Amino acid sequence: MHLAAHFPGVNNTTVWSDPRSGSQIDFDSFVHLARTAERGKFDFFFLAEGLRLREMKGRIHDLDVAGRPESLTVLSALSAVTTRLGLAATVNSTFNEPYEVARRLATLDHLSGGRAAWNVVTSYDAFTGENFRRGGYLDEADRYNRAREFLHTARELWDSWAPRDLVADPAAGEFARAGAGTFAHRGTQFDIAGRFTVPRGPQGHPVIIQAGDSDEGREFAAADADVIFSRHGRLDDGRAFYKDVKSRLAKYGRRSDELKILPAVTYVLGDTEQDAAERAAEIRRAQVTPRNALVFLEGFWGRDLSGYDPDGPLPDVEPDLGEGVSKGRAQFRGDRGEVVRTWRALAAERGLSIRELVIEATGRQTFIGTPRSVAGQIDEFVQSDAADGFVFVPHLTPGGLDDLVEHVVPLLQEKGVFRADYTGPTLRDHLGIGGPRAPKETP
To answer: Which residues form a coiled coil (predicted)?
Structure first.
């Protein structure tokens, strides 16, 4: 199986009130979590990224992470204090340009000795676009068109340099250098030509990650990704997603093992099953504070609900389905009216308060139990073809993976289902996916 670590970003996962909760900005926090993941022989360390601070009723929500340093810069620094751990960053394809992104990722691949990965994402809203000259120009329907061409253009740039083994003798080397970096791309989204400044990295191409769950997103992953992040942390949902995505690979000439499916998951350990369950309940209540519960509900109701008791019943007012009060939160898109109707039915059926409903609706805890039972649950998920592994999202920064690495990983190694040590230097080696597509011939 494959394991990865996620450093929480803009989220409602972090338990800020825990005395062990540290900085999400200081470099020492990144170092601690990355080194913990590497000690556990994880495949990679992942940083998400938001391009604008999210707002609620025109104000920054103070339980969000604010002030997060830029991801590729952080990973470049981490490449100097780790030796084998893959380093993955979200980089937006809507508000960036292929040349610059390809250059930064190739640089990270060189600095890290072949450990770079790129989570290709798109942006849907003009709110984020206000931070950029183009604003919100891109229609939502065109997001994947741009992302697909963006990725293909970046690959052309990486392939514009010959692999190192093709320039072994001096004569061939001089010839290759004469044409190195030459590129020309003519497409509907990009029309660029010139010379690419960074030689081909140790991996050829950085590992490509994708996180879309729509039909279009799944197709994009099947065609172009090496890893897909999944939100399906339940066994039956995971099996269905796994089967669907893997079945799409053959049309692109790819084998099932060339795309790794990794759901985002959490864990809670206890000395007994009851102890773990009690801890899990405490963590959920700490994540969904009374204020957080109201803020979350306001996103779907589209109106100010500050006058309601979070421990009381759901608001009796109808939702405002207009522009809403939240900006920058993808979960508040879609049919909010349908969500409200579903929640009202659930609250009525189970007698849930506002806070209890939000805890139920946003529950992310996946593996709960003793170290041995959690190791068994993780293994069952993978052996049942519901995932190829997991991206663990801790609720504490920076020590949230310490217990997992110390108590659960050794049991997975004991079972023989997770590596005892790294077997190669690159992230592609860790994932077992081999090299990228063959590069173009150098002129």
So the answer is: none
Output the pTM of the full model: 0.92
| pLDDT of the residue at 64 | 66
- Domain residues for the domain of 180 are 2-268+365-431
Q: Is the distance from CB of 259 to CB of 218 less than 8 angstroms?
A: no
Instruction: Quote the CA–CA distance of 312 and 317 in Å, as a whole number.
Output: 14
Q: Are 355 and 296 in contact (CB under 8 A)?
A: no
Q: Is the domain of 226 the same as that of 96?
A: yes
Residues 250 and 146 both lie in one domain: yes
Same domain, 20 and 153: yes
**With bands split at pLDDT 50, 70 and 90, how would you rate the model's confidence at 442?**
very low
Q: What is the largest CA-CA distance in the chain?
A: 79
Residues 74 and 223 in one domain: yes
Which of 331, 361, 391 marks a domain boundary? Answer: 361
Boundary of a domain, candidates 332, 361, 390:
361
Q: How many CA atoms lie within 13 A of 293 on its CB side?
A: 26
**Average pLDDT of span 108-122:** 96
Whether residues 261 and 319 fall in one domain: no
Whether the predicted pLDDT of 231 surpasses 90: no
Lowest mean pLDDT across 79-93, 151-165, 247-261, 382-396: 151-165
Mapping DSSP to helix (H, G, I), strand (E, B) and coil, where does residue 119 land?
strand
Using DSSP bridges, classify how beta strands 207-210 and 116-121 pair: parallel, antiparallel or unpaired: parallel
CA atoms within 13 A on the CB side of 20: 9
DSSP classification of residue 252:
G
Average pLDDT over residues 300-325: 90
| DSSP codes joined into one string, 74-118 | HHHHHTTT-SS-EEEEEEESSSS-HHHHHHHHHHHHHHHTS-EEE
d(CA 363, CA 381): 18
CB 44 within 8 A of CB 7: no
145 pLDDT exceeds 60?
yes
